[in-house]
Design brief:
The protein has five helices and eleven strands, in the order αββββααβββαββββα. The protein is α+β, with helices and mostly antiparallel strands. The protein has two domains: 2-70, no CATH class; 75-200, 3-Layer(aba) Sandwich (Protein Transport Mog1p, Chain A), CATH 3.40.1000. A seven-stranded antiparallel sheet has the order 5-6-7-11-10-9-8, sandwiched between helices. A hairpin with a 4-residue loop joins strand 1 (12-14) and strand 2. The longest helix has 17 residues, at 54-70.
Length: 207
């Protein structure tokens, strides 16, 4: 994707992060990455136009980009739109997970540390089980949580577990649209419990 952007920067003038206008050529370009059917794709559009129809060309390109780029699920949305909490001070990449499509870490609004990773559909179990085993090996003991919601309009929680030792630790496997997400919360016990309740209790904003 970066190589393609470099070529377009030479051939055309960028108008934003995803769109270019040809130098000496009546054409608009767009290039971006997206996720589809378990794989990342690089999408490239070229819309030729005559000078009196540039507005039509811009409309066509934006329409193509919207329906290709923004509609439908993606790993980015699994860590944003489909999350049940915000990730503050977010950094891409995770210390707890590997082999994922996309991961991020940061802090929840309640103050719990959070790491989350997105996997291809059916592949989240392995990440969840490995993390659960590591927590148990560290001497953390499983504790009960109150009954919580497990569904939302986009997917459902397939498995969750909460541990306590010197800290509280919560692990969740979520089945979203076309992919899995594994989430880790850790920190002060009351803070972690509050973060979980705010995400999944009947009084939370998740329906």
């Amino acid at each position: 994707m970066e190589e393609l952007k470099e070529k377009l920067d030479i051939k055309a003038n960028t108008t934003n992060g995803f769109q270019w206008e040809g130098k000496g050529e009546d054409a608009l370009y767009s290039a971006f990455s997206m996720y589809f059917g378990g794989f990342y794709l690089v999408v490239f559009f070229k819309v030729p136009y005559s000078q009196d129809l540039i507005d039509d060309a811009e409309y066509t390109l934006k329409d193509l980009m919207f329906h290709t780029m923004w509609v439908g699920p993606s790993p980015g949305k699994m860590l944003g739109l489909f999350m049940h909490t915000r990730i503050l001070n977010q950094t891409w990449g995770s210390n707890a997970f590997s082999g994922d499509l996309l991961s991020a870490r940061g802090v929840t609004p309640e103050g719990a540390r959070i790491e989350a990773a997105v996997y291809r559909e059916g592949c989240g179990w392995e990440g969840y089980d490995k993390l659960k085993e590591k927590i148990e090996e560290l001497g953390f003991k499983e504790k009960a949580l109150p009954q919580l919601k497990s569904h939302d309009p986009a997917g459902k929680v397939a498995q969750r577990v909460y541990f306590e030792k010197d800290l509280g630790v919560y692990i969740e496997l979520y089945w979203g649209p076309g992919m899995d997400r594994v989430m880790l919360l850790y920190g002060n016990k009351s803070v972690v419990k509050t973060a979980v309740l705010n995400m999944w209790s009947e009084n939370s904003s998740t329906s």
